[in-house]
Design goal:
The complex is a heterodimer of chains A (321) and B (369). By secondary structure, chain A is mainly α. Chain A has 15 helices and no strands. Chain B is of the alpha+beta class and 369 residues long. Classes of the chains: A mainly alpha (321), B alpha+beta (369). At the A-B interface, helix 4, helix 9, helix 10, helix 11 and helix 12 of A face helix 1 of B.
């Protein structure tokens, strides 16, 4: 059936022109009907789904003038997108997929699902569908603002799609990225400390602060257990602890880059704070921690970005072929 | 052509989840940078900051100690601690994560607080002062019974008391707060430092300049006090104050303000386990610094025997002891107890190091086969 689908430019728009909406794209109220469990289809858009008294826009799929065969007929083929789409398909979409075969990339399953099955979860509720994408092929995009930026940033993919790609294999990649970023931070800090003074190295400063704050029970245990190796054991314990925290930061950074930047950055700031508050500290003692922290932030950004799948989705190359 | 003209075939392979090659390259680079910076930084730190201790030349002491009696150092019992502990085997307990590196050229000691004339003394000034050689056994308060935080050395230095007299200690200054180059502080009572014992600002240890781990270029040695209330390494600052006005580092953490070393003794050999029957030499060391060891007794299954003592060097050092024992097969319990020259016998009450030193008899379980 898809072979009989009309070309996209012949397909009627699913939304009225964007200018019809005050701010360029459908508002919450405009789309209430879509969320209300098939409400739009069963009872019309004036049913129970909307806010009382709020002005309503008639959703296009409730348009009685809409040809009934639009649903099946309005789907263009999208040959190259199948695999990638799987990453963000929701069940409702898949359900439609199973019955309806191919769809437009930007068709929300919910629209159709609402019509076809009378009430499935709406993908739109999960947010982030750029109205820009709803512009028909060949028509100028009218969306602007953050949605447009989002759409552009993702090369026309919804946000979820990229996150889906990032999610895969993220545990190991994130762990490695976090671990190495911390290693870079400590290594660079140690190098810089060679030009300040060894005590300004964050690991030494924090270790010294830890010694000063060690409860006597723990200190006695360490002295009894490790004897004169207590300092080496402390350093080992610190490295292991830092490694675990860094791995956690890295795993989070894989999903949310700012967590990595903030996490590693806070590490550096913490080292600087401890170094400057040590007895007999110099102002310059903050330098190794700061420089190390910056190096670590740069490292985690580069590492996470290096692992991310190239931003340009594959279907583009399919187009070109 | 338009998209619609492309017939649908099988779904394409899913895109790679991560950009593996790019990530591997980036990871390798990051690891290399981290390793190079870390190792290089350590190398540079050592190169730039390590101070050469051999720049200090120890002179002839102005006051020569009486010769150590030959019999003070028993050397023919394997496993027994030597009278002098070699520098590289001397225990090290401090809070410095990296060994401070202080060059003698930049070293200065400030004496201030409750003194008539605050002083600043350079290393060259210090070396011009009369030097004294003195044997002192140091003990750490963390030493558990039978432990290893005790060592004996010949220290060379100048009398701390005479320097403080020049500064003029004011009435009521009952504590000297000593600070090292890292800002670590130890508080010592003024009274024992000034009571005539050989308290030193030491620059030499066993005929060598102080090793870096032991406080190069200058440390404090006060006979008879645990290290945490006296033996400040890398010392650069002395403030005369009162115990009421300042809690020193360890006092703040629950340890006693003042802590004379307790009379203690240790069995070095046999270590325990099992030994063949026959003549077994039980040997070890006993210490009661600045009181001196009078007697040592060895307990074998509850019966106490007088041990033979090495000759007394000074009352500030430990004494070796030994007891030849004709061992019979079976399980045995060996114990040791010392009596100092004030007549005080070490207590059998078991107590941990906190707050002012461990007590109890060192006990060794032994099976003779």
């Amino acid at each position: 059936m898809s072979f009989q689908d009309p070309p996209r430019h012949q397909r009627p728009p699913r939304y009225p022109a964007h200018t019809q909406y005050a701010d360029g794209y459908p508002s919450d109220q405009d789309t209430q009907a879509d969320r209300g469990g098939g409400n739009g289809h069963q009872n019309g858009y004036q049913g129970s789904g909307g806010l009382a008294g709020a002005p309503r826009q008639r959703p296009p799929w409730d348009d009685p003038l809409q040809p009934s065969g639009w649903d099946a007929g309005g789907r263009p083929t999208a040959r190259d997108t199948g695999g990638q789409r799987a990453a963000w398909n929701t069940d409702s979409q898949r359900a439609v997929s199973d019955t309806g075969g191919q769809r437009s990339l930007w068709d929300t399953g919910s629209q159709r699902a609402a019509r076809d099955t009378g009430g499935q979860r709406s993908l739109r509720n999960t947010g982030g569908q750029p109205p820009a994408a709803q512009a028909e092929e060949g028509l100028p995009r009218r969306a602007s603002g953050v949605f447009r930026a989002l759409a552009d940033e993702n090369n026309g993919w919804p946000r979820e799609a990229r996150h889906g790609q990032r999610r895969g294999g993220g545990l190991l990649v994130g762990a490695v990225a976090g671990f190495l970023a911390a290693a870079v931070a400590l290594g660079v800090a140690n190098l810089v400390a060679a030009f300040v003074r060894p005590q300004a190295s964050p690991i030494i400063a924090v270790g010294g602060a830890f010694i000063d704050r060690t409860p006597s029970a723990l200190k006695n245990f360490a002295v009894a257990k490790f004897g004169e190796n207590d300092k080496n054991m402390l350093l080992l314990g610190m490295y292991v602890t830092i490694a675990f925290i860094a791995i956690a930061i890295g795993i989070l950074a894989w999903r949310r880059m700012w967590v990595g930047v903030a996490g590693i950055g806070l590490f550096g700031l913490f080292g600087a704070f401890v170094a400057i508050t040590r007895p007999d500290s110099h102002v310059t003692d903050v330098i190794p921690s700061i420089v190390g922290g910056i190096a670590g932030v740069v490292a985690i950004v580069i590492l996470v970005n290096a692992a991310a799948v190239a931003r340009r989705p594959r279907y583009r190359s399919g187009w070109a072929a | 052509m338009t998209r619609t003209d492309i017939p649908r075939t099988s779904p394409p392979a899913p895109p790679p989840r991560t950009n593996r090659r790019k990530f591997l390259v980036a990871s390798g680079t990051a690891a290399a940078i981290a390793a190079a910076a870390g190792v290089g930084g350590q190398y540079l730190q050592n190169k730039r900051f390590t101070v050469n201790t051999s720049s200090v030349k120890l002179g002839k002491p102005a006051v020569k100690p009486p010769p150590v009696p030959k019999a003070a150092d028993i050397t023919d019992i394997p496993g027994l601690s030597s009278f002098y502990t070699p520098n590289d085997h001397f225990y090290r307990v401090d809070t410095a994560l990296v060994v401070p590196q202080v060059s003698p050229q930049s070293w200065q000691l400030h004496i201030h607080g409750m003194v008539d004339t605050p002083m600043t003394i350079s290393f060259a000034d210090l070396m011009k002062r009369p030097m004294i050689d003195h044997d002192v056994t140091l003990t750490c308060v963390s030493e558990s019974v039978g432990g290893g935080y005790v060592g004996n050395a010949r220290w060379q230095g100048t009398l701390l008391a005479s320097l403080l007299k020049e500064a003029g200690i004011q009435k009521g200054a009952d504590q000297i707060v000593m600070r090292d180059v890292n800002g670590m502080n130890l508080g010592v009572a003024t009274e024992p430092v000034m009571d005539g014992r050989t308290s030193l600002l030491a620059v030499g240890m066993n005929g060598q300049p102080l090793p870096q781990e032991h406080g190069f270029p200058v440390r404090v040695v006060v006979p008879g006090l645990y290290g945490y209330v006296s033996a400040c390494k890398w010392v650069v600052d002395m403030e005369l104050t009162t115990f009421a006005a300042f809690d020193a580092y360890w006092t703040h953490r629950g340890w006693s303000q003042q802590a004379p070393i307790k009379t203690e003794s240790r069995i070095d050999v046999p270590k325990g386990g099992s030994t063949a029957a026959g003549l077994v030499t039980i040997a070890g060391v006993a210490w009661a610094q600045h009181r001196g060891i009078e007697a040592v007794e060895v307990g074998i299954d509850g019966t106490w025997h007088q041990a033979k003592l090495a000759s007394q060097d000074t009352i500030d050092t430990w004494r070796q002891w030994y007891y030849p024992w004709h061992a019979t097969p079976g399980k045995h319990t060996l114990q040791v107890r010392a009596t100092d020259k004030t007549g005080h016998m070490q207590t059998a009450v078991k107590h941990g190091p906190e707050p002012n030193g461990a007590t109890g008899y060192h006990t060794v379980q032994l099976t003779i086969t």
